[in-house]
Amino acid sequence: MAGRGEMPMRPARPGPPMQYRGPPPMARARVEPIDREKTCPLLLRVFTKVGGHHQNEEFAVRGKEPKDEVQIYTWKDATLRELTDLVKEVALAARKRNARLSFAFVYPDKHGRFVVKEVGSTFSYGHGRGDDAKSLAELGFQIGDYLSVAIY
Length: 152
Description:
The structure is a single chain. 7% of the residues lie in helices and 26% in strands. The protein has a single domain (42-151), classed as Ubiquitin-like (UB roll). The chain has one helix at 80-90; strands spanning 42-50, 69-74, 100-108, 114-123, 146-151. The chain has a 5-stranded mixed beta sheet, with helices on one face. The protein contains 1 helix and 5 strands, in the order ββαβββ. It is mainly β.
């Protein structure tokens, strides 16, 4: 029985119990077009290396990142093809006709340790091959992430 000023208790709703169905299906990231004339670019710290990506530990101490850094001003809608062409301007190995570039985001995990996660690859002169048309935003880039580029 409900006391004075209290609401009477209602019985639970009949029917099957709620079941956990997991997270909603992933939809492809919808990227809004960026007006590069009106939008300020971001600073992208790019670390290149011939033969493979840098190791997680090489980013562990702030200020002591690998020395082969290139700083690029770009936008989140920049494609891997655009970044490939920029890397070719500063890395001789990337200019070879058969060069393949592998891109990885470098970011801190929930424990503060840096993670190197591969996100795509391109070929130096293979327009339309690989992940050329994918943009940083589509791949999940967050402002503040670094970009590791392995040149094979």
